[in-house]
Write a structure and sequence with these properties.
Length: 209
């Protein structure tokens, strides 16, 4: 395309010169013709056109329509910026902790209740005196006596006669309005009863122990 434009421009110039210079000598015309003939010959053979021709006519353009003096774009190679690899999360295992089983406390044991201690009754006296009353009763009716102790019954100037009988032994005193009787009980603990044979309601007991 570039060469065709140059050829057309050269032919146009020759024709213009021929029209303007009609009064010139015939020798000049053949020269122009020779020049004209020479230019197509150079176009056909592929020879490079004169350097002045493009400047006298329209600036030469490339096939893409750009001027010959247009700056040539120099490709710039993109520089790859190294990208750091993504951080990898590292799973951290917690340190193994040895777990001690909780100490098992033995159940609280209640102390056993104290064993009641048998309380020994204080030993009775070794001698006790019992008397008859006007209402025909022994006073006191019941007495405590130490093992092997002695009881003495007595009555004096009573309106009615009395006597005393120890039941377990069958021992008894004389009957009278005045009198006394003593008996020593065994060391064996126990309750021993007595009474008056004249008055069945005059009864009592001796507790030994």
């Amino acid at each position: 395309m570039y060469r065709v434009l140059l050829t057309i421009a050269a032919l146009g110039a020759v024709l213009a010169l021929s029209a303007c210079g009609g009064g010139q000598s015939p020798a000049a015309a053949p020269a122009a013709s020779a020049t004209t003939a020479a230019r197509p010959s150079s176009t056909v053979t592929g020879a490079s056109p004169p350097a002045a021709a493009p400047s006298a006519t329209t600036p030469a353009r490339g096939e893409g329509g750009l001027g010959a003096d247009a700056p040539t774009a120099t490709p710039t190679e993109a520089t790859a910026t190294p990208t750091p690899p993504p951080a990898t999360a590292t799973a951290t295992q917690p340190p193994a902790t040895a777990t001690q089983p909780p100490a098992t406390q033995p159940p609280a044991t209640e102390p056993p209740p104290p064993t009641p201690t048998a309380t020994q009754a204080p030993a009775g006296p070794t001698f006790v005196s019992v008397t008859a009353t006007a209402s025909n009763q022994w006073s006191p009716r019941g007495v405590n006596l130490a093992p092997g102790g002695t009881v003495q019954w007595s009555w004096a100037d009573s309106a009615q006669p009395h006597e005393v009988t120890v039941d377990y032994a069958g021992a008894s005193s004389d009957i009278g309005k005045t009198g006394s009787f003593s008996w020593t009980f065994p060391a064996e603990a126990g309750t021993y009863r007595y009474h008056c044979a004249v008055h069945p309601n005059m009864v009592g007991a001796v507790t030994v122990g």
